[in-house]
Amino acid sequence: MRRNLLHIDPSGHHRPWIGANFWSRTGGPLMWRSYDPAVIEQELAVLAEHGLDLTRSFFYWPDLMPTPDALDEKTLEHFADFLDRHSAAGMRTIPTLVIGHMSGENWDPSWRHGRDLYGDVFMVGRQAWMGRELARRFGAHPAVAGWLVSNEMPIYGDPVDRGNDTTDHTHVTAWAQLVVDGLRAGGATQPVSLGDGAWGVEVTGRDNGFRIRELAPLVDFMGPHVYRMETDRVRQHLNAAYICELLDFTDKPVIMEEFGVTTDFVSEENAGHYYRQLLHNTLLAGASGWIAWNNTDYDDIHEQPPYSHHAFELHFGITDAAGKPKAPLRELRDFRAVLDRVELPKLRRPDAKAALVVSSYLEKQYPFTMPADAQLVFDTARQGYVAAREADIAVGFAREADGVPEDCALYLAPSVKQLLSPTWHQFTRLAEGGATVYVSYCSGTHDTQRGPWWAGVDKLFGVRHQLRYGQVTPIEDETVTFTFAEDFGDIAAGSELSFPAAGTINSRAFLPVEPDGAEVVATDAHGRPALLRRRIGTGSLVLCTYPVEHMAAARMGANPEDTHRLYAALAAEAGARADVRVADPRVLTAELHHEDGRRFVWFVSQYEEEHTARPVLADGLALRDEEGEPLTAVELAPLGVRVLEVVSA
Q1: Interatomic CA distance for residues 563 and 389, integer angstroms
Q2: How far apart, in whole angstroms, are the C-alpha atoms of residue 401 and residue 346?
Q3: Residue 319 DSSP code
Q4: pLDDT higher than 90, residue 28
C-alpha cells in the first residue's frame, strides 16, 4: 500500500519548510502599529542562526482594511519592509490574510456588522478583493514562500461551536474557491492553503463545514494545527502523527502549520522533549514541513489582549521575550541538521504491507447514526496506530470511504462496531487471497442499536455468537487475560497477554461465541474464546472477542499495553514484519528510503531515562551509525531519537 511523503517544492530548489509562526514581541497582533525594524531584524537573525528559514506572518484585519474598499498604506509599508528583512536574513514568509481569530480572541473590521463570513456575498467579495490586492502588491517578492487565506477560520466564523454542525459546507467551499481565485488573479504563483487547521470531519469526526474532501482540490498543501492534550504520554507523542496519517488520502503535502507548547503548561526541558517527539514522528507519518507556534514570548505586552486574559499564550515562544533561544528552538535546529543529512526532499516512505482500516463512520453522515460513533472510530483507530507503532509495523491508513486496497498482507480493524456490508464481504475475499484480516469486537459506547453492525458474524468468522437482544455481555474481570492454546506468530503456546478492562456501561463488553469452523487460538480466564482464527483460501480471518484497543483508548496512561504483542504476532503470521524492529514497545522504529537506494531507520525512545535498544534485523542486514561505523546496540538519550543507516551485512 502506497504511503505519501510529498514535498512542497519537489524540485529541491528551496530547503524543506522549517520555521515559526511570527508576531514580533513588540506588539503581538498589533505589531504593525508598533513596528520596530531593528527588533524584527534581531528576531529573524536568531531564527536563522538556528536553521529556520521561514516564518508564517499575519495581517491584522481591523487595521489592514479600515474600510471595505481600502487597505491601510502604513501597514503595507511595514509589511514591505518586513519582506525585505526576510530576504536580507536569507528567509521567506507565508502571509496569512484574514485575522480574524488569534490566540484566544476574535477581531472584526469595524464595517463587518455581523455579516456572515462565508454566505454573505459582500463579505466574501471583500475577502477575495483583499487577497487579489495583496498578491498584486507582494506576489512577486522573493521573500513570499506561500499564502494562507486565514487563521483557524472555524473559530472566527463560529466562536461558540467552532462551526461544528452549524456551518454550511457549500458556503465554505465557495468562499475558499473565491478567495483563492482572488489570490491567483492578483498574481500569486506560490503554494496556497486555507489556514483552517485541517479540522474537517474526515479527521475529527465532526463536521465544521470545512470538508477536506471538498477543499483539498482547491489548495496546494494541507496544514494541520495540533494542540490536543491527551491522557497518555505515548498517545501525546503520536497524536500529531496520527493526524498526518489521516490526511494522507488527500495526496497533498502535509505541512505542520501550527504546533507547540506553552512553558506555562510544561517545563522548558519537557517542551524540548515534546518538540523532538512531534517533529520526528510527524516526519515518519508523512509531514514534510514544520512551522512552530511561535517565535517569541510576550512578557512585555502582558496587559494587551489576548495575553491579558489568556496568560498562558504569553509563553508559547521558541525564544523568550528577550530573544534568547529556548529548548524547542534548539530541537528545531537539531531536526534541521538531521533533515539535511538524510536529504529529506529525496526521501520516500516505503510501501506498507499492513493496513489500518478506518471506518467510513468517522466521516460519513449515514442516516440514523450517532455522533459518538465517529468519536469511537477516531479513538480506536488512534489506539490501533499506537499499538502498530509500538510493534514496529509500518501501516498505511485504509479509509473505507475510499475503498480498502487489496495489496496488503495484513489488515487491522481495531474495536469495530460499524463497517459497511460490502467491506465485510471484501474481508472474506482478502483472506481467501492470502491476507490475514484481524477484527476486534466493540458494541459501541451508547445504547442506540448497540451491538455489531457486521454482515454476519457467524459465517464471517466461523463461530456461533451467543448475544442476547438488548443486552451486552459485560466484562467483569478488572484485567482480561488471554492464554494462548497454540503458537501464534512469535507468541508461544501457554503465553499470556493482559488487558486492563475499561469503557462505558455499553462498551465494556465482549462477544460471546462458540467455534463453528474456527480454531480457538486463545481463551480468557474463564475458558471462553478470546481469539479465534478461521482459515480460508490461503489466508485467515482472526476475531478478537474483546475490544482491546477501545479499552486502552479509554484509560489514562495505558501505553504501552499488550495489544502491541498481539499485533506483532499478527505481523509475523502475515509476513508483514519490519526488517528492523525492537522487541521493546518503548522504542519505536520506522524507515524512510532515499531515491539513491539508501535506507534510514529512526529509533524513537519513549524512556524518560537513557536507554540501550537491541535491534532485531532481518537476515543479511546491519546498521551503521551517524559516522558510518557498524553497531549492534543503539544508545538513546531520554526521549531521544537516532537516525541510522540500514546496510547489507
Answers
A1: 11
A2: 31
A3: B
A4: yes
CATH for 197: 3.20.20.80
Amino acid at 63: D
Residue with cell 514568509: 93
All 3 cell numbers of residue 253? 503535502
Q: Are residues 284 and 404 in the same domain?
A: no
The C-alpha atoms of residue 221 and residue 4 are separated, in whole angstroms, by: 13
d(CA 251, CA 246): 11
Kindly report the CATH number assigned to the domain that includes residue 519.
3.40.50.880
Do residues 218 and 180 make contact, with C-beta atoms less than 8 angstroms apart? yes
Is 400 found in the same domain as 341?
A: no
Claim to verify: residue 483 and residue 547 sit in the same structural domain: yes
- Could you tell me the pLDDT band of residue 259, with boundaries at 50, 70 and 90? very high
pLDDT at 351: 97
- Model confidence over 507-533: pLDDT tens digits? 999 999 999 999 999 999 999 999 999
Count up the domains in the chain and report the number: 3
480 belongs to a structural domain: yes
The mean predicted confidence, pLDDT, of the chain is 97
Domain termination site, one of 574, 600, 634: 574
Q: Which residues contact 448 (CB under 8 A, 6 or more apart)?
A: 370
Range of the domain at 531: 354-574
What separation in angstroms does the CA of 80 have from each of 17, 41, 73, 193, 489?
21, 14, 10, 22, 63
Which amino acid, one-letter code, is at 238?
L
Considering the domain architecture, whether residues 606 and 513 belong to the same structural domain is answered as no
Pair 344, 362 in one domain: no
Q: Model-level pTM greater than 0.85?
A: yes
Ranges of H-type helices in 89-230: 121-138, 153-157, 169-185, 201-204, 212-215
Residue 629, classified by CB atoms within 10 Å of its CB into exposed (0-12), middle (13-18) or buried (19+), is exposed
> Distance (Å, rounded) from C-alpha 609 to C-alpha 160?
43
> Which stretches does DSSP call E strand in 493-583?
496-500, 509-510, 513-515, 519-523, 529-536, 539-544, 580-582
pLDDT in tens, 414-425: 999 999 999 999
Q: Which of 9-18, 296-305, 559-568 has the lowest average pLDDT?
A: 9-18
